Amino acid sequence: MNQQLAVLLADVFAMRVSDIHPDLKKDDVGSWDSLKQMDLVMSLERTYGIALDIPDILQMVSVAAVIAVLIAKGVDLGD
């Protein structure tokens, strides 16, 4: 798991970095509501210099999906 992304996700969702993993789903995170989804979008756009569209945002329902969207946008998450 990319450390920068793990730290970003942990910060957005007020979790420990060690609890962030690709299998983590939106339903598993109590704080992952629509407001936090927009916090996530803004953080990802700012950190990685990308623009996320509505389909991208709707697809991001798990850490694995966030990773997939970032890779599709050309973000290098090489560990």
Q: If helices are DSSP runs of H or I spanning 4 or more residues, what is the number of helices? A: 4
**Average pLDDT across residues?**
97
Number of structurally distinct domains:
1
Shape label: globular
CATH topology description: Non-ribosomal Peptide Synthetase Peptidyl Carrier Protein, Chain A
Using the coordinates above, name the CATH class.
Mainly Alpha
**Unreliable segments of 5+ consecutive residues:** none
Rounded to an integer in angstroms, the radius of gyration calculated over CA atoms is: 11 Å
DSSP strand count: 0
Strand content bin = under 5%
CATH superfamily: ACP-like
Largest sheet report? none
State the helical fraction: 40-55%
Task: Give helix and strand order, one letter per element, not per position.
Answer: HHHH
- Structural class of the helices, strands and pairings? mainly alpha
Provide a brief overview of the structure.
This protein is an all-alpha fold and 79 residues long. It has helices spanning 3-13, 34-48, 54-59, 63-72. The chain has one domain (3-72): ACP-like (Non-ribosomal Peptide Synthetase Peptidyl Carrier Protein, Chain A).
Layout of strands and helices, then pairs:
Elements: H1 3-13, H2 34-48, H3 54-59, H4 63-72
Helix pairs in contact: 1-2
Question: Can you describe what's shown?
Answer:
The chain is mainly α and 79 residues long. It has one domain: Non-ribosomal Peptide Synthetase Peptidyl Carrier Protein, Chain A (Orthogonal Bundle), CATH 1.10.1200. It is built from four helices and no strands. α1 packs antiparallel against α2.
